[in-house]
Here is the input.
Amino acid sequence: MKGLIVGGVLLGLGGVAFYLWQRGRDAAPQMAAGSPIPATTEPATTTSGFFDNMIYSVTSVLEPRGIRNHNPGNLVLTTIAWKGKVPNAQNTDGKFEQFTQPLWGIRAMFMDVRGDIEKDGLNTIRKLLTEYAPKFENNLAAYIQSVVSQVGIGPDARILPSHYLNLLKAIIRHENGKQPYSDALIIEAMNTK
Here is the structure.
């Protein structure tokens, strides 16, 4: 029975892989006769909404929790009324905040980090991360080293506003294993009131 289940799962994954391969082939730009420029820049369309939704669902589940929640800083669920926050009664995570768009989650993370730095005096990477990512939940030494290497300042050097963009990018990367957001989006989130 176990072999039958495994076989069915592998067959299903093979079908998904074939679908993605075929979809990628169909999306390849067609060249105009004798020209190195694609004949059209319109995206390929598919009539297979079911498979598109299935692929979206599968890839969404595979994304890190912070990315799925539009909360790349993994802010813990609170009663704070962040802009763009999914109301607590509708939150499906139960531990971490959820936001309607990445912009709002990045904005909330920035406000939290900036408050820690500017109001609470946690103005070095070591001080900030000791509060932001407590030892009982994280490998704090590895987190500090990761952020230090990406921001380009020592763990006990003062964090300046000019470091904020790289600091946010480093925290996002460490929290999620990747940092998929453009600098433009992060800067927009930092400047959104």
